[in-house]
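All the exercises in this workshop are built on plain-text protein records. There is nothing in a record beyond a sequence line and a structure line. A learned vocabulary of local backbone shapes supplies the integers on the structure line. The question running through the whole workshop is how a given chain folds. Here is such a record, shown just as it appears in the course material:

***
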Amino acid sequence: MKLVSAPFLLGLAAAALTVLLIWKYLGAPAVIVDAPAGKVHCVSYTPYRGSETPFNPDYKADPARIDEDLALLSNVTDCVRTYSVDQRLDQVVPIAEKHGLQVLLGIWIGRNDATNRMQIAQAVKLANAHKKTIKAIIVGNEVLLRGEQLPDDLVGYLKEVKAATGLPVTYADVTDFWVKAPPELAQAVDFVTIHILPYWENDPTSAQEGVNYLRRVLEEVGPMFPGKDIFIGETGFPSAGRERAEAVPSVISQARYLRDLAAYAQATGLDYNLIEAFDQPWKRALEGTAGGHWGVFTTDRQAKFPWTGPVSNHPRWQLEGYASFVLAFLILFVVARAGGQPDSLGGLAAGIGAGVAGSALLLQAEHSWIVWRSGLEAIAELVVFAQSLGIVIFVLPELVRGRRCLAPLPVGQTLAWLRSPNRATLGMPLYLGLVHLLAVFSALVVSLGLSFDARYRDFPLAAFGLASISLGLLALNRGDHKRRPEDRPEEAVLAALFIATGCTIAFNEGPQNVNAMVWVLLNFLFALPWLGILVGAVRNTFFKRAATAEA
């Protein structure tokens, strides 16, 4: 395809229109209920940034950064909740006092009684010095959930802190463990603190239904604790991460749930604390992408959404669209230089494909940026991105050739070349085979993880959608599905694995998880060119066994 030709110019126009439509859709603002005027009741605060983590025994909080954070938070709330008093986190209390904030002071209770005693002693000293600033003391967070203490031990800690400070005390845990706890625990607290997180519940709930779910839980749990007020110690919704049933993390979802919650709390007098002030990257190692994206503010202290007016998942969609169009132009340039000579209809198809591919590459890069949690994962993301570039450089130009396209080297021959590289084999079939093998291997690794350990794993649709469709079309164009199974045993095995993992994911996730169903479709697209080979292999095996049995 010549750079100055009708097919190329038509493709360029088609790419521009495709990119515009994609990003206009992705960036469309949602009109949701405005939050009532005023500040949110309270927000969880921890100062960790970047690679900082509470699991680093040498970490010490910087008072200047705490001061900076609390100055910002004082604009949106009058209260912060903490979880510990070590690592210099006790400094939060006097700095909060300076900014006119009250503190729900957290004492971290774990397995080690000596460490617990140190936490309690430091918290008691702090509380007695700042009684007007400390709203209440939370003695332990989800200790029963983690199985690190017995309820009787917590009762002892609560009574000790209450006697030493005279301040209100409480214990925080998810609803199930409060319900199962002996009545002595509720009797030892001044109010019951429960965590309600619609996204993480065993039956995940969408942001649209989140507040209704919270209301139902309160109606069920409230009567179980007569004479005790219920405080929502943690609630919120992540702005990024894997879809869980109908719970889809996004900026719009987070804004919708938090605004609905603020309106509901104002109407009912409910007291609550949001999880959390700032995104915490360290949580991604424990809870996947979603774990690091519960903050009202990003890690660089930027508000994620306004509390009134429309909200967009991609507020800078015009800029992202321009970047995608540049990528689409480069893709068309690569296709044109490869020498394909499509007609006008082919140029139009190439343009649409380039627009989709350019947008997918940008979405993949954005997703990779927020999901990697370690150096090893960063390398894995770079490998997958290299695979996508391989699709653009080698596969898309071949698709433009239509029936004249070259076929990827079979998997068996590609593996043989990797074991014993031979310069004589260098050429487009080998390059296509290597890209195909990398894409298939990467996709299978993801699918196996999603089949057996899915809770914290994302569905990387942008990273593999382009590969599955492009490679499938290329193989079908060459008639690979008609190959004899005895010549392609590796493809039969891979097709079987894709089908098996796809069925497992569909069964585990259910049809309500749209992202999961799309990933299952991608699995089947990877297997599609080899279905004939798989069927032939199964038929041959069956007939061979039948013939052996008859003999």
Remarks:
- Residues 1-27+314-381 form one domain.
- The chain has a mean pLDDT of 92.
- The chain is about 55% helix and 5% strand.
